[in-house]
Specification:
The complex is a heterodimer of chains A (416) and B (424).
Chain A (H helix, E strand, L loop, with lengths): L42 E4 L2 H5 L4 E2 L6 E2 L2 H9 L5 H4 L9 E4 L17 H12 L4 E2 L6 E2 L2 H10 L5 E2 L5 E2 L2 H10 L1 H13 L38 H4 L1 H6 L3 H4 L22 H8 L15 H13 L9 H14 L13 H6 L22 H6 L11 H7 L19
Parallel strand pairs in A: 1-4
Antiparallel strand pairs in A: 2-3, 5-6, 7-8
Chain B lengths: L35 H5 L1 H15 L2 H14 L6 H18 L2 H15 L2 H14 L4 H14 L5 E8 L6 H11 L5 E8 L2 H21 L3 E7 L10 H4 L6 E7 L10 H10 L4 E7 L10 H22 L5 H19 L17 H9 L3 E3 L3 H12 L5 E5 L12 E5 L2 E10 L1
Parallel strand pairs in B: 1-2, 1-4, 2-3, 4-5
Antiparallel strand pairs in B: 5-9, 6-9, 7-8, 8-9
Helix pairs in contact in B: 2-3, 2-4, 2-12, 3-4, 4-12, 4-13, 5-13, 6-13, 7-15, 8-9, 12-13
The chains are: A mainly alpha (416), B alpha/beta (424).
GO cellular component, one term (chain A): nucleus
Keywords (chain A): DNA-binding, Metal-binding, Repeat, Transcription, Transcription regulation, Zinc, Zinc-finger
Protein name (chain A): C2H2-type domain-containing protein
Chain lengths: 416, 424
């Protein structure tokens, strides 16, 4: 499960809305709020499902016309040529409104996890608790929110998946199956061992834009946040020390904010931000895809999986969606790029994963990034060259073996 | 018959383009007039005549036809030439009663040349160009995921012939589609010797991939060739009481000796699975066991479809297609020329049954589960991703129950693969 980040500045909310206390040591300040941690001063609104899904919540007091959005209503009101006084909103300062999800079992049902946007809560309700009425014709994936479905349909079938071995697939299922059996997967262990020679090759930078010169020893990790590791506050300010200390424990930042999923990219205050790392390192072939084009295949595979499962991930108002869908995703995000820069630190590193049963010490290192590791590639020639083509041998052997026809010397069963 | 202009050997080069359909170098002695259709189907006619001669024990005719087939056939030619080639081998074995020996030799040869790399390449390529196997995978995985919904300890007993290529997509689905990723134990029962040799590699890959996906995973391989499949026990399979069990059986039931199929189904029932997914090729080589002629007809019909499908799915010069065709030769020899009475212990029976027939067997202990609309949609979407010629047919043939028992993959409207799901 995702560990909820509680930002130091918003730790304890005094008006009683929040009952959680900050059990976790404060993490590095993140720009974006965790989805569903609203302003404590906000007014919490609970709507019934019916009201929530009603399409015309905003009605004009003059003519009674209903609108889906407040902005539309305001636009309409202007057309009534109201005298100035009436043009203004009601005098009192409208309190910021936050909404809770009507579904009782939902985490957003509690006021402390209310969402700030009406559209957001509508979409959330549909996505999580609603019926998936919209289905993609190509891959038959279902969506509850029409805009999610539309967004998916645009990209469905258009993305390409590239495996480490270089093969490109247009079909996701072929890619997944291939990936599972690809030699590149098997070779990662070898690479990890070799990669251990390259470590700490990072230039200090405030933005922590690491320039990798060697193998991806310190690929930005996307992995399950492990709550047991108290994060040293001192390491937050000095990003470099993280790396140079080789204290991989400290590297584990909570990656709830993956730019790869179309989140707005965070500013430089962010630490270990996967997308920015990639983007600075590699040329983006597909700028719109942000980090997609530059990600390792494993991450690609997982991203593909997540893109599929998390519907529209580009709406900023749905951060909470990320966190909940990430739960499933994070476990799959223990990318093979578990940055095992150092074999000697393997133990320390992998010890981190003792909490998750599936991890063991064979942390295979990251895949090559697509550009920039030609040196590595030279050292580790693609696995294809190793494969022995024995199909030809099969040809010769087949049926050349002693099926002697009786009395029919002309009948030949070999076809050499 | 003129032989000078016969050139069966000119087609031996694998890269020779397929001759135009109307080109027929040899006059068919039996045909009075040649039409494009006849030209195309000379192999089936000759083969049928030969089979008939064998049934009639007309040795003169047998010899003559075998010789002709030998002249005209080639594993590198067009469909007719290939069919002629592979069936000729089986007919020859039947005529000379050397089926068992031939089969054993074929198996040994294939065993020796089998390796993980080649097997992997072969099956992945096949899956890329044809939904023959992926059809069953998608349907089964869909049914399995639905049966496992909400469970956290999953155990799949897999008895299949697709070298675990079904599981990566399932693992991915488990990792991404479920809120809480369950743990999966996969027990693979291996019967064919060839598969055993590659299982080590497959084990590694599966485990690595599951780690990648973040699914807690355990993988076991059970050797199922020591004794009849039906005699395996729950303990041997490692089934525990707190697990949700599913049995996945793809292309494997046909390899069980006909008399033992009931036992195997009983074994499945004893495991108390949530669902049993069965996928088999739609052909009947079982009912006609005693009747060579009927069996031959069915065999010819089925493999003509299969070879035709292979030809249209692969590139003309594909090595993989060649290998798949060769794999057929073993089955054909086994079915046509190995008498069952002497074949206990030969392993891998290959006597297919149609979906209807499997239904009769399964209905004794299970009841059919229709694939959900979602799964059917997934299958349809899958078929769209391949070349044209593929379609979905519902198996309405089972008149015992009102439910659809299984779906059928059809190639050019002929059903070829049957997929079904069953619950206790």
């Amino acid at each position: 499960m995702i560990e909820k980040l509680v930002l130091p500045e918003e730790n304890i909310i005094s008006n009683g809305c929040f009952t959680e206390t900050n059990n976790n040591p404060p993490t590095k300040k993140r720009k974006r709020n965790l989805p569903g941690t609203p302003d404590p001063e906000a007014e919490v609104i609970a709507l019934s499902p019916k009201t929530l899904m009603a399409t015309n919540r905003f009605t004009c007091e003059i003519c009674g016309k209903g609108f889906q959005r407040d902005q539309n209503l305001q636009l309409h009101r202007r057309g009534h040529n109201l005298p100035w006084k009436l043009k203004q909103r009601t005098s009192k300062e409208v309190r910021k409104r936050v909404y809770v999800c009507p579904e009782k079992s939902c985490v957003h049902n509690h006021p402390s996890r209310a969402l700030g946007d009406l559209t957001g809560i509508k979409k959330h309700f549909c996505r999580k608790h609603g019926e998936k009425k919209w289905k993609c014709a190509k891959c038959s994936k279902c969506y509850a929110v029409q805009s999610d479905w539309k967004a998916h349909s645009k990209t469905c079938g258009t993305r390409e998946y590239k495996c480490d071995c270089g093969t490109i697939f247009s079909r996701r299922d072929s890619f997944i199956t291939h990936r599972a059996f690809c030699d590149a997967l098997a070779e990662e262990t070898a690479r990890v061992t070799a990669a251990s020679h390259f470590n700490n090759l990072v230039t200090p930078s405030r933005n922590i834009n690491y320039h990798f010169v060697g193998p991806p020893a310190f690929q930005p990790l996307s992995f399950k946040p492990v709550p047991e590791n108290p994060l040293d506050t001192t390491t937050r300010q000095d990003g470099l020390s993280l790396w140079t200390n080789n204290d991989l424990m400290n590297q584990l930042e909570y990656q709830t904010n993956w730019g790869v999923f179309g989140d707005k990219d965070d500013s430089s205050d962010h630490q270990v931000n996967a997308p920015s790392l990639f983007s600075t390192l590699n040329n983006l072939h597909h700028p719109t895809a942000t980090a997609t084009a530059t990600m390792s295949a494993t991450a690609l595979l997982q991203k593909a999986a997540q893109m599929g499962s998390t519907s529209s991930t580009t709406t900023a108002t749905n951060n909470h969606n990320h966190s909940s869908s990430f739960q499933g995703n994070f476990s799959s995000n223990i990318t093979s790029s578990t940055a095992v820069g150092n074999v000697q630190d393997d133990r320390a590193f992998c010890g981190l994963y003792t909490t998750s049963p599936m991890m063991n010490n064979s942390c295979y290192g990251g895949e090559d990034m697509e550009n920039g590791f030609s040196s590595l590639n030279e050292m580790y020639p693609p696995s294809k060259t190793r494969r022995i083509h024995i199909e030809e041998g099969q040809t010769r052997d087949f049926l050349g073996v002693g099926i002697q026809p009786i009395g029919h010397p002309r009948i030949r069963f070999d076809h050499v | 018959m003129e032989r000078t202009h016969l050139s069966p050997y000119s087609n031996h080069h694998p890269t020779t383009a397929k001759p135009p359909p109307n080109h027929h170098p040899y006059p068919d002695p039996a045909a009075t007039e040649t039409s494009p259709d006849d030209d195309h189907k000379w192999a089936s006619k000759l083969l049928r005549d030969c089979a008939q001669a064998i049934s009639d024990k007309d040795s003169g005719k047998i010899n003559h036809l075998l010789w002709m087939l030998n002249e005209l056939s080639s594993p590198y030619g067009d469909c007719d030439q290939k069919l002629a080639y592979y069936f000729l081998q089986a007919l020859f074995c039947k005529a000379t009663e050397s089926g068992q020996r031939c089969y054993k030799t074929l198996v040994n040869v294939a065993d020796k040349s089998h390796c993980f790399d080649s097997a992997r390449k072969l099956i992945l390529k096949f899956q890329e160009v044809s939904p023959w196997t992926t059809f069953g995978h998608v349907a089964s995985n869909g049914a399995i995921l639905e049966a496992f919904d909400g469970e956290s300890k999953l155990h799949i007993i897999d008895i299949s012939n697709t070298l675990c290529t079904q599981w990566p997509t399932l693992l991915e689905a488990l990792a991404t589609r479920t809120d809480e990723t369950p743990s999966l134990k996969l027990t693979v029962v291996v019967t064919a010797a060839m598969v055993r040799s590659v299982m080590k590699e497959i084990t590694q890959r599966m485990e690595k991939f599951a780690r990648l996906m973040g699914v807690p995973f355990a993988f076991n391989v059970i050797n199922g060739s020591d004794k009849p499949l039906g005699k395996l026990s729950k303990q041997e399979l490692g089934v525990q009481d707190d697990e949700a069990v599913v049995v996945n059986c793809i292309g494997a039931l046909r390899r069980v000796e006909v008399e033992e199929r009931g036992d195997v189904i009983r074994l499945f029932r004893a495991l108390n699975p949530r669902v049993v997914t069965v996928v088999e090729e739609e052909a009947d080589f079982t009912r006609s066991r005693g009747d060579f002629g009927t069996c031959f007809e069915e065999c010819l019909r089925y493999y003509t479809l299969y070879f035709d499908m292979l030809e249209e799915s692969f590139n003309p010069t594909s090595n993989e297609r060649l290998m798949l065709e060769r794999e057929c030769s073993r089955s054909i020899v086994r079915v046509l020329s190995c008498d069952d009475e002497h074949n206990i212990g030969l392993g891998d029976c290959e006597r297919r049954e149609k979906g209807k027939q499997w239904c009769v067997r399964l209905n004794e202990l299970f009841s059919p589960v229709a694939f959900s609309d979602d799964v059917v949609d997934d299958v349809k979407a899958l078929l769209k991703r391949y070349r044209t010629g593929w379609s979905l047919a519902s198996d309405q043939a089972n008149t015992n129950t009102n439910m659809d028992s299984g779906i059928l993959l059809a190639w050019k409207d002929e059903p070829v693969v049957w997929a079904s799901a069953w619950k206790p």
